[in-house]
Amino acid sequence: MxxxxxxxxxxxxxxxxxxxxxxxxxxxxGKLTKVSEYSGIDNPSFLTTDSKGRYMHVVSEVLETDGNxxxxxxxxxxxxxxxxxxREASSHQTLGGAPCYVMLDGAEKYIAVSNYxxxxxxxxxxxxxxxxxxASVRFRHTGSGPNTxxxxxxxxxxxxxxxxxxxxFVPDLGLDKIMVYTLDSEQQWxxxxxxxxxxxxxxxxxxxxxxxRTAYVVNELDCTVTRFTYEQPGVLEKQESLTTLPDTFTxxxxxxxxxxxxxxxxxxxxxxxxxxxAVMKLNEASGELEGAGFVSTRGxxxxxxxxxxxxxxxxxxxxxxxxxxxxxxxPKSGLPIYAxxxxxxxxxxxxxxx
Length: 354
Known about the structure:
Number of strands: 28
Order of helices and strands: EEEEEEEEEEEEEEEEEEEEEEEEEEEE
Structural class: mainly beta
Strand content: over 45%
Helix content: under 10%
């Protein structure tokens, strides 16, 4: 059974500062250690790796590149050991500012990037050697929502492929909608649907249940998680929403990430303000949400977190307290238990485990 996991942390940093950190988690020892640190890219805020461990795809979350209003998608060859540096394999403009999310489809034929500013989602074809080519399509979002401070314009915040790779779901915080795109009969990406959420919800990150029959979105602004049934390809049917906050909390809060446990029994959502993970139990048959507790992330503003593929460990990134914290997950309750391990990393905003 695998007990060593590589963990990549993306952070807000200037080009000459450490922006990407490689950690290693030893689950037998319950030990999390720094392996290497890398600079050379501005604000590598979100990253992912391919299934073969050859490349890492990173968005540079900036408003301008070479005088153009765009961020960058940068692909690096993954180093074989800690002595090597990240070697750039390709770089492409994202055709919009502040790219904040990147995802490969399951077959690793496409990469999708969400641009929070210059609001759009951009898709890149991936060659057989694993390196993305120039953008093949860009969908621009327009409109606004009732929250004049945060929804003054469209703000795509993530882009998630369906499990079969035929659809792309893009929660737009500014529009209170999940925009849906699909591959048509000629294998071209086209618009398919728009799923509305309550005004002012601010949908941010979206995930499918491992069963593929249910999906969930965390709403940043109204601090809820909404469940959808997914019985027909490309069709989300909205069901209930559940708050991410305890009834007694009265402060300001925004949500950031949601993660579903590999066994599909629990969902976790991060609160920035309450500085916690909301734990929700998922009904085995329906996927219905039920509150199961709250756990402090032992830091300020948990921007992102991830769970090991074996479901036993959770790593949380606290952006405003410069810390990455390790938790074990109690199997019966699903609650994260502090593992007495914290690492100092400046402005961490993405946790990717492979």
